[in-house]
Amino acid sequence: MAMTDTRQNGRAALLSRRAVLGGTLTAILMSQRVAAACSPSPLGTARTLAVGTAGGLFTGLKTYPRTLPLGPREVILSFDDGPASTTPAVLDALACEGVKATFFMIGRNVAANPALARRVREQGHTVASHSWSHPWTFRQLSVEAGRADIARGFAILNETVFGLPGSSPPPVPFFRYPGFADTAPLNEWLAAQNIGVFGCDLWASDWNPMSADAQLKLVMERLEKAGRGHILFHDTRAQTAAMLPDFLRELKRRDYRVVNIVPGPGKAETIPAPAGWTSETEAIIAGKRG
Ligand SMILES: [Zn+2]
What we know:
Layout: H1 2-15, H2 23-36, E1 47-52, E2 57-59, E3 66-67, E4 74-80, H3 87-96, E5 102-105, H4 107-112, H5 114-122, E6 126-129, H6 143-160, E7 174-175, H7 184-192, E8 196-198, E9 202-203, H8 212-226, E10 229-234, H9 238-253, E11 257-264, E12 271-272, H10 280-289
Parallel strand pairs: 1-11, 2-8, 4-5, 4-10, 4-11, 5-6, 7-8, 9-10
Antiparallel strand pairs: 3-12
Helix pairs in contact: 1-3, 1-9, 3-9, 8-9
């Protein structure tokens, strides 16, 4: 029952920016639009990239001077902070276009929405960890408290999504720090467990409230400028769920290709940042602290 409610809420969010009519007519139009969202020639997932994390991995140009080896007009899509009531709409949009993505989940949201967390995996997406409690920031915690929060985040995924004992090595050893605020001791600890740290190459800034149309325009402008990259969204944001069908169609129209990242053996190949690289996230984290 809760699952059905969540799905309905998600579909409503997907359509909310267009649904201005009332009563039965709205319901009919909404169902037509859900059907229309499934393209006869879907975008699809162009390839799967196995990402090895042996000895650790630090990737994503916003934070680290290395990134995954994407070709021109290749993108990786990732969604942070769920699962939440808006996640089903995101899943529906991805399913309509045959697109696989990575979901960096907050552990306590997994505990609150276990069936939804499992659905993400069942639909073929990569389920990764974004900590247990999403502390802002790990830099404010002791190393012990930081380790405990990260370990608990992986443990709930093991137990809820993967059917493993909590303390097992994570089957998807991919981690993203809340706010990209890493610390040297935690990085070292994660690397020793062969867990990779994922930043991103560009983001949608969907933490800022804006219309779905403004959100689409912003992320397409950034993508056109970058030409490729690992893009960060939040499946907890209604504006992101609402614009996603249009975004995926736009990717297809402009000949972008989606790359799905999955765990792989050994150590991933990465490519260095362009000359003159600096971390954008350090400045943001420092600003927020001040
Ligand atoms: Zn987050």
